[in-house]
Amino acid sequence: MKKLMPIFAFLLIALLVLGSTALADDEIKIILDNEELEVDVAPILENGRTLLPMRAIFEALGCDVQWIEDKQEVLAEMWPKLDKNNLLSSQRARRISLIVNKPLATIYDLTLQVIDKFPGLAPYLEKIANSSFVQDLSSLIPFQIIPLDVAPKIVNGRTLVPLRFIAETLGCKVDWDSQSQTVTIENPEPVEVELDEDGLETDDPEEETPEEANPDNEIRE
């Protein structure tokens, strides 16, 4: 029996190593614009849907996000951003509300609010709308309640939210490779904006320019 003990010990170690390798292989990877997204809580699969920490995905996509404790609500906003090369981000202008353990999302379209503030952006936002399978800006729905396949949930102190729903709501392309357990997200291509000599014209020339109003150059309400 003593001669068999080393064999048993070796087999146990081998099983532990192989088991840990299998778990590692099963880890879900998130690739955003060709770069792996690092998260402090591993993504999980539930009912065929990938969930990951709310702040990680929303901030990676360029959203402002906040947690409303008393309502157990995640509130995220995406506003168009104009970079130094006059490229306008093509994610859809949205406000997304998610509540823990409720399989519903409330979506507010902010596009018309942006146009009210910056009329000169209308043709560019029209182009973004058309690329997002919206016929024209007049067909935008300002407020929708959407059923979710999986509700947001809290795991290890982190609020996890459905990845595909969020990314596609903002206009991103999402692919899932079941063999490699990899989610690939691609942001839409930005739109080039032609500015006049006065820059981005607002509906009130006495108000602050976008750069003065916020250092991140977000086009806000």
3D structure, described in words:
With 221 residues, the chain is of the alpha+beta class. Mean pLDDT is 78; it is low at 7-25 and 203-207. Helix content is 25%, strand content 29%. The chain has one domain (27-213): Copper amine oxidase-like, N-terminal domain (Copper Amine Oxidase, Chain A, domain 1, 2-Layer Sandwich), CATH 3.30.457.10. The strands form four sheets. The protein has a five-stranded antiparallel β-sheet. Strands 2-1-14-13 form a four-stranded mixed β-sheet, covered by helices on one side. A four-stranded antiparallel β-sheet has the order 3-4-12-11.
CATH class: Alpha Beta
What's the alpha carbon Rg, rounded to whole Å? 22 Å
- Provide a count of the helices: 6
Write out the CATH superfamily name: Copper amine oxidase-like, N-terminal domain
The CATH topology, please?
Answer: Copper Amine Oxidase, Chain A, domain 1
Spatial strand order of the main sheet:
5-6-8-9-10
Helix content: 25-40%
The chain-level structural class is alpha+beta
What percentage of amino acids are in beta strands?
A: 25-35%
Distance between the termini: 77 Å
Number of strands: 15
The geometry reads as globular
What is the average per-residue confidence, as pLDDT, rounded to a whole number? 78
Number of domains: 1
SSE series: HEEEEHEEEEEHHEEEHEEEH
Describe the main β-sheet briefly.
Answer: 5 strands, antiparallel
The CATH architecture would be 2-Layer Sandwich
Query: Which consecutive residue ranges, at least 5 long each, have pLDDT under 50?
Result: 7-25, 203-207
